[in-house]
Write a structure and sequence with these properties.
alpha/beta, 20% strand
Length: 186
C-alpha cells in the first residue's frame, strides 16, 4: 500500500487555504477570516501549534465560514474544476492508494472521486451541522490509520513535512517530497 500526505506532497500548495481564497469570490464576507487563516496556517507549517489549539481555532471559525455558502458541494466542484491541475505531475493515482491529510472531507471527497481513490483519512466536517468532528493532524494521522487499517502495512509513505514522523515510523520506506523532487528518507 502507498500512503500520501496531501498538501505540498501530491498537491502543489495548501488545499484548504487555496479553497478559502477561491471561496472569497463567491462570498466577500468570508474575507474577514484572512488574518486567522494566515496565522494558523503559519503555525501549522512550522509545527508550532498544539493539537488542542488548532482544534479550537478550526472549530471556532469553520462553522460560520462554511455556513456562509448555500451550495457547498457546488463550490467544491468548481474549486476542483480549477485546481485539479495542482496535483503534481509525478503522482499517478492508484485505486488502492491512501491519502492521509488534515484537509477537510468536504474538499477531499470530490477530489478522491475524480482521481478514483477509495481510501482517504482526513479531517471530518459533519455535513448536517457544519461542525468539525475530527481533525486529522500529527499523531491523529497514525492513530486513525492503525484503527482503520490494522493489518495493512504501508510499503511507501510520501510527505513534505517531518510533522508526519509518526507515519514515517510505521512505513517500510518513506520519501520526502519537495516540489517535484522525491528523496528516500527511510
Amino acid at each position: 500500500m502507498r500512503a500520501f500526505d496531501f498538501d505540498n506532497t501530491i498537491y502543489d500548495g495548501e488545499s484548504v487555504f487555496d479553497f478559502y481564497l477561491f471561496s472569497i469570490r463567491y462570498n466577500l464576507r468570508v474575507a474577514k477570516y484572512i488574518p486567522i487563516v494566515f496565522f494558523n496556517l503559519f503555525k501549522y507549517k512550522l509545527g508550532k501549534t498544539t493539537m488542542q489549539d488548532l482544534e479550537q481555532a478550526v472549530k471556532k471559525y469553520s462553522r460560520d465560514y462554511l455556513d456562509s455558502f448555500d451550495n457547498k458541494e457546488e463550490l467544491v466542484s468548481l474549486f476542483w474544476d480549477k485546481h485539479i491541475k495542482k496535483i503534481k505531475p509525478w503522482y499517478e493515482p492508484r485505486k488502492d492508494d491512501i491519502i492521509i491529510t488534515a484537509s477537510l472531507n468536504l474538499i477531499m471527497d470530490e477530489l478522491c472521486k475524480r482521481l478514483g481513490i477509495e481510501n482517504c483519512i482526513c479531517s471530518v466536517v459533519n455535513r448536517e451541522t457544519m461542525e468539525v468532528e475530527y481533525l486529522n493532524f500529527r499523531d491523529n494521522k497514525r492513530k486513525t490509520f492503525v484503527e482503520m487499517y490494522k493489518d495493512k502495512p504501508i510499503d511507501e509513505f510520501y510527505t513534505d513535512n517531518m510533522v508526519d514522523k509518526p507515519m514515517i515510523d510505521i512505513a517500510k520506506s518513506a520519501y520526502f517530497v519537495k516540489g517535484n523532487k522525491i528523496k528516500k528518507i527511510k
